[in-house]
Amino acid sequence: MDRALPKRFWTSQRIALAGGSMLLLSMLLYTFVFADRRSTLNVEKDKITVSTVSTGPFEDFIAVTGVVQPLKTIRLDAIEGGYVTQKLVEGGSTVRKGDVLLKLENQSLKLSFLQSETEANRLVNELQNTRQRLQIERFTLRKNLADLDAQIEQAKDTYDRQSKLYKDKVVSEEDFLKAKRAYERLVGQRKIDMESQKYQEDNAKIQIKQLEGTLNRTQRNVALWQQTLDNLVVKAPVSGQLSSIDVEVGSNINRGQNIGQIDDMNGFKMRVGVDEHYISRVFTGLNGSFEFNGKTFPLSISRVYPEVKSGRFEVDMIFPQGAPEGIKRGQSSPIQLELGKAAKATLLPVGGFFSDTGGNWVYVVDKTGKRAMKRNITLGRKNPEFYEVLSGLESGDQVITSSYENFGENEVLNF
């Protein structure tokens, strides 16, 4: 007879259901506990640039652009103003020191010169008249003294005779006193005349000295006016090339106005613009180099202009070994300006990532080569080819160095 079998709890259906539940629970547990929940973005690897971090000498230099200029440029400024009557030389001409470039006219200066010259002539005449008057007065005083001395000698003889006769009681006391008073009066008069002559001599010397001082000043003034008139003829102060002269016949020039410049063609320099970021690291004596006609030529900073315009300042660089043959004024050329000596460092190639991250982090490709992850880094100095890595990267690391503009805030990039 048939026997009823007991019902089994773990049927195949239940086992399958339990297994599926356990699998689902495991997947959920892994997702919440172990899975990578970082934001990701799929990118095409052939549209990005991946560079390898390396170790090597870091050459501390920057790339700048220099423009060839004459070693010396002399500004032509009008010493005196006036209107142009003649223009004898055009811009671009070679001139020698002393060559006449322009002739100016200024009626006001001419009138002042004539007035000064007239005053000087008047003073010369006045000085001559004073000297002649003094000489005549000297002759008159000498003649008067000679006459007076003769009268004194005669009065003295009379006085001496009267004195003897008076002692012998031959003449009266009145006659004796009369002779005595006549003699003493003449002696006193001579003394007064001598004092008067000395006073007139001293006074005349003072007048002459004053007139001579005034005349000297006036004559110097005349000489200055003459020099001023001479400055209406504009001459080349040095030999060189007249690179520009910005005036025409009939135009009016003010005193101190710049009318052109002369370039000294005996040497050249490079005028270089440098980003203001480097102003604290650039000083005279720094070296650089540039290529011309396939050869490299050294340069050295001779002057730094500290004024910053539009985020840049300028320096002058000279050729220590002489300017290259064939170089021309106005040519521009890239220059490698050294900021320090080369030193061993970890190097990261320059790329567009820096503008998006400020050099604070990068995407580093993992060992599988299938994804890249954010990593914080610290960068130091920069040259046109490499950044100096201070921390966060090691030699051999693969870093995305192209722009991160399209990556948003994603922390992982999948290729």
TrEMBL record:
The keyword Cell membrane does not apply. One of its GO terms (molecular function) is transmembrane transporter activity. GO terms for cellular component: cell envelope; membrane. Signal peptide: none annotated. Residues 346-403 form the Multidrug resistance protein MdtA-like C-terminal permuted SH3 domain. Keywords: Coiled coil, Membrane, Transmembrane, Transmembrane helix. InterPro entries: MdtA-like_C, RND_pump_MFP, UPF0194_transport. It comes from the Bacteria. It holds the Pfam family RND-MFP_C. The chain crosses the membrane at residues 15-35. Residues 113-165, 201-228 form a coiled coil. The keyword rRNA-binding does not apply. It is found in: Cell envelope. Belongs to the membrane fusion protein (MFP) (TC 8.A.1) family. This is Efflux RND transporter periplasmic adaptor subunit. It comes from Spirosoma rhododendri.
